[in-house]
Amino acid sequence: MSKKVFIETYGCQMNVADSEVVMSILSNAGYESTDNINEAGLILINTCSIRDNAEQRIWGRLKAISHLKKRKHDLKIGIIGCMAERLKEKLIETEKLVDIVVGPDAYRELPLLVAEAEAGHKAVNVLLSREETYADISPVRMDKNGVSSFVSIMRGCNNMCSYCVVPYVRGAERSRNPESIMKEAQELYEMGYREVTLLGQNVDSYKWDNNNKIMGFPELLSNVAAINPLLRVRFSTSHPKDISDELLHTIALHDNICKHIHLPAQSGSSRILKLMNRDYSREWYMDRIKAIRSIIPECSLSTDMIAGFCTETKEDHEESLSLMEWVGYDFAYMFKYSERPGTRAARKYKDDVPELIKSERLSEMIALQNKLSIKSKKNDPGRIYEVLVEGYSKRSDEHLSGRTSQNKVVVFPAESRVKGEYVNVLIEKCTSATLIGKCI
Ligand code: 5AD
Ligand code: SF4
Q: What is the number of other CB atoms lying within 10 angstroms of the CB of residue 431?
């Protein structure tokens, strides 16, 4: 009888893509995936370390599932991903529940490590690699909609933003062979998928050297877009220091490359950006936004913002707010700064903004973004958008939900439309998060 594995994924899209690689490796070793944690013989938690609260959630989750082990003595529990890499064997030593610890570059070893754990040994592999991209592995798709999927194009990060744990837990940057990326995207299209999101920590520095012929991200992106006009292409994440006009022209040129750029600013203060080691100033960032606006006028924009980084003053914070207002983001992810052990900020700067002030500043950012999100949709009623249908809306089976090229969510009466179809929707009204309309 094949063994059942339950994988739970925390953190970013990259982790979602990695869980699909893990499932592929395990299914080749005879495992079967299950959605029911109670029937699993192996539970893997794919973890995130980006902020302390991400790790706290995982400790909480481990407590919550501890009863399963009492009931089933041969159950094995593995911590994989970023938190496994950060804490290494300490995880097994401090938490008796954990049998297996595997970092993001060692997933090929999982079947072996599970066998080790079953034989009663400590099973830890947190070696980082300079080459591993899992290029030859066909991920087992675990998404529920069958319409949009992630394709990893590179791993690791060389940027060394001073607040960020990613370079430590995911290692150095390396790009994946473009042939394997094209093959994966093509297969997804043939399986009925209609949207792929190309993933990397900094997609703008994608680089593949084929006998001295260098392929950069713009070329890769247009190749993927050429697979089929019905396949939408998105990407994440761009870095403001590297996003080039060449890329912007590529996006403008192809109808099926989505007109949305996630361009994390992190802060609006050049002084703070310098301490963050972001390698650009407020002015540089604003210049890139101007370039986007002029080359791709219909492009939507989103950002990540950190409130309360080391030494941040009221004036710095106000510069973040004024930048947000100036750009008029359609969407933003906003966080309180969380010191991560071992990072440059943790070693060099004092985490000196009091918790209460961090919370106040974050609340101000969120309130502002709510206003901006509403503003970004205010002019949409009366417009017609092409929407890729992803499935039924959360609230009702009589309504479908999908997204515009700009990544705006649209809900409309289903009529006879189905997921995976492109539908023209006339927008009639909006809420702060959703556009509501009817098909035409
Ligand atoms: N504290 C708070 N937010 C962080 N991010 C990364 N590291 C930290 C940290 N130590 C945020 C950044 C990044 C997003 C993925 O998470 O905004 O873009
Ligand atoms: Fe993703 Fe970063 Fe979290 Fe790792 S630490 S899962 S790379 S967000």
A: 12
Q: What is the mean pLDDT of the chain?
A: 96
Question: Which tens digits make up the pLDDT trace of 196-247?
Answer: 999 999 999 999 999 999 999 999 999 999 999 999 999 999 999 999 999 9
Judged on CB neighbours under 10 Å (0-12, 13-18, 19+), 285 is buried
Pairwise CA distance, residues 386 & 42, whole Å: 43
**Cα gap 325→332, rounded to integer Å:** 12
**pTM exceeding the 0.85 threshold for the entire prediction:** yes
Best mutation site among 16, 48, 51 for ligand 1 pocket (most ligand atoms within 8 Å of CB): 51
Separation CA 60–CA 70 (nearest Å): 17
CA of 117 to the centre of ligand 1 (A): 34
The size of the chain, in residues, is 440
DSSP letters of 51-120? SHHHHHHHHHHHHHHHHHHHH-TT-EEEEEEHHHHHHTTHHHHH-TT--EEE-TT-GGGHHHHHHHHHTT
Topology of the domain covering 384-439: OB fold (Dihydrolipoamide Acetyltransferase, E2P) (2.40.50)
Mean pLDDT of 272-291: 98
For ligand 1, residues with CB inside 6 Å are 50-51, 163-164, 264, 266, 304, 306, 335, 337-338, 340
Please count the other Cβ atoms lying within 10 Å of the Cβ belonging to residue 381: 14
Q: Ligand 1: which residue has its CA nearest to atom 6?
A: 164
CATH of 4-125, one of 3.40.430.10, 3.40.50.720, 3.40.30.10, 3.40.50.12160: 3.40.50.12160
Q: Where are the domains of the chain?
A: 4-125, 384-439
Q: What angle do CA 275, 314, 355 make, to 5 degrees?
A: 80
Q: For residue 46, which atom of ligand 2 is closest to its CA?
A: 6
